[in-house]
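Design job #97: recover the sequence.
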């Protein structure tokens, strides 16, 4: 008896007392219909809630407090270098007034190698669209958003999104995006699970996502 036959024989013996179950066919799947009548303020509240569900840090701000919220997202983090200021990757077009004074700015660009991105303590970015129903942030890598690698390699991603960029659902988001541009859809910090469902964060993207919603 081959190893394959031995394994199948054991499986058959283990299932001898298990009754046959007829497959259930033609089951109607009922999906909730999103409420498109919510006021925009409630849509933003839902976005806040859903982003936080993914274990991201979410803060609200206005134009006068946004810089302080960004600085607070970086405060207290130990630098990879062991000492000195944090090295923060800043893509072209990110608002200069939101960049803290006490960090070492690493300007992003196509000539910045991935090894250099890996030495950065974090990255700042804006966003293109936020989806309330799914808690998803979409980057189209326009001004302030950087290259795809810029927001995937550093361990911390601080994303600033305006409240007026938040839409209710995926259809509205897709309609607002330019299909000719590359898109990165972010739902919380990078996370995966092994066969025992042990959650591991930071494997294929930032370990920490900090979102500042500016109204």
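Job complete. Output follows.
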């Amino acid at each position: 008896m081959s190893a394959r036959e031995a394994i199948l024989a054991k499986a058959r013996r283990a299932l001898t007392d298990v009754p046959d179950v007829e497959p259930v066919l033609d089951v109607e799947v009922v999906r909730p219909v999103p409420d498109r009548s919510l006021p925009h303020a409630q849509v933003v509240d839902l976005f806040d809630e859903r982003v936080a569900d993914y274990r991201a840090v979410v803060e609200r701000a206005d134009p006068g407090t946004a810089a302080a919220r960004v600085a607070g997202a970086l405060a207290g983090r130990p630098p990879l270098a062991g000492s000195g200021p944090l090295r923060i990757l800043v893509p072209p077009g990110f608002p200069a007034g939101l960049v803290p004074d006490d960090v070492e700015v690493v300007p992003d660009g196509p000539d910045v190698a991935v090894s250099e991105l890996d030495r950065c303590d974090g990255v700042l970015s804006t966003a293109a669209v936020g989806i309330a129903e799914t808690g998803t942030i979409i980057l189209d890598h326009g001004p302030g958003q950087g290259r795809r690698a810029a927001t995937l390699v550093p361990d911390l991603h601080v994303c600033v999104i305006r409240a007026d960029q938040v839409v209710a659902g995926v259809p509205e988001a897709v309609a607002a995006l330019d299909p000719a541009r590359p898109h990165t859809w972010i739902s919380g910090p990078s996370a995966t699970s092994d066969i025992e469902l042990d959650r591991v964060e930071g494997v294929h993207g930032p370990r920490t996502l900090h979102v500042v919603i500016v109204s």
